[in-house]
Structures are given as structure tokens and as C-alpha cells.
Amino acid sequence: MSSVDGRLLPGRWTAPFDGTKPSELFKEYAAIGKSLDTDAWMFGKTTAREAFPYKFMPKGEPVGTGGKVFIGNRASSRLFITIDHDADIFFTSDRLRGDNILVILGINATADYLAALEEKGISYIVCDDPTDLRSALEVVAKDFGIASISLQGGGIIDGAMLAQGLIDELSLVVYPGIDGLATSPSIFEYLGLPDERPAEGQALELLSVEQRPYGIVRLHYKFHKL
């Protein structure tokens, strides 16, 4: 979900014209997300930090090798996935919004951090290179049976997925408000060099346009790899 100028920080968006509480509009976004009927949903680390703001203070040496997979609690019908390159999110629960958690980690994760995740029943995979998202998601598919993921940002993870050609569809929910600040994060925030083109070789086909309550518009696109 973004403002009409493609920005991602809801607290900065202008309010609905008729006094409707923004929370009512966010309910529409949540309903659309659930209607996608994916096996999992995903945040980048910055967005996950909003739910789990405290840092774990790892001790000891990094594990140093990838390939380890731990399957924790799997009671929910969907999984919540996040990538934690620093291996320091302090999870206070094995669930987010009712869904069990799976964390993608790098080889800098320490044994005591992995033990803390296991104690809480939080699933994880340790990758040699967690920035190689295609390889990480192949493990997620193979070991956890995840065939489809609803990627819900923020902009950095969206940009990384875009650059690696991993997005099949875009469901863009446009909130009827404006941010306006040039430096506010946008839908795709690829961290690359000025001459890089993370969307190169990809084209969008509009599948549908839907007007929702409260002036919300949903745009649904298919990605074509050229």
C-alpha cells in the first residue's frame, strides 16, 4: 500500500477528506492481502523491526557455514518470513499477526542466537549469502513447502526482489493521500549504483483496476520477463 505519490510511511500521509479514520482504510489493505491466498507473507528487516524493535545481543563466534535448516512451530496455515542479515532481531513470540515465523539468516548468525530461536520454536535457515534471495527462497520452497509469498515491503526488500527478477505480480493498493517529501521511502528502493537498472528486462501488464471503499484503488499487474 502506498500514497498516490508512491511513498510507504503511513504516518506521513494526508488524512481522508471526510474524516474517516485511516485505520478503516488499512483494514481494506489487510483484506486484500488475505484475499491473495498465499502460503506466506514477508517483510524486510526494517519493517519487521516495527513489530520486534529490541535487539538481541549475540555472544560467541558466528557459525561460519550455511545450509542449516530448523523447522520450528508450524501450527498456522501461513508463515511470516523475514530476512535478518545481522541475526539480532529479538523475537518475543514465535508468531506475528497469528502466523508462525521463519527467519532467513547469514553465516554471521551465532550459535546462541540460533539456540534462542529454537527455544521459541521459530524456524530459520542459514544461508552462505542471504542477499542471494533466489537461493534462499529455493530452500524455503523445498524445506517448508512454500510456493507463493506475498511480499509486503518495505522498499529495500521490494527493490532487492525486483533486481533479482523474483516478482511475478504486483498488487498495488493506492491510499487516497499524499506524503510529498522527496526523501520518504518509496515502493521500490534498490540499493545500487547510479547507473544500475534494477527493473531492466521486466515489463508490466495491467490485469485489473478495482475501486475499493474510502477512495482506495487497487492496481493488479503481471510481470513479464523480457
Plain-language structure description:
It is a single chain. Strands 1, 2, 3, 4, 5, 6 and 7 form a 7-stranded mixed beta sheet that branches. A 3-stranded antiparallel beta sheet has the order 8-10-9, with no helix packed on it. With 226 residues, the protein is of the alpha/beta class. The longest helix is centred in the first third of the chain and has 14 residues, at 22-35. A hairpin with a 5-residue loop joins strand 9 and strand 10 (217-225). Helix content is 23%, strand content 24%. It is globular, with a radius of gyration of 18 Å.
Q: How is the biggest beta sheet arranged?
A: 7 strands, mixed
Strand proportion: 15-25%
Rg estimate, integer Å: 18 Å
Alpha-beta content class? alpha/beta
The stretches of 5 or more residues where confidence is low (pLDDT under 50) are none
Give the ordered list of helices and strands. Answer: HEHEEEEHEHEHEEE
Look at the structure and give the mean pLDDT.
Answer: 96
In whole angstroms, how far apart are the ends? Answer: 26 Å
Count of individual helical segments: 5
Helix content: 10-25%
How would the global form be characterised? globular
Tally of DSSP β-strands: 10
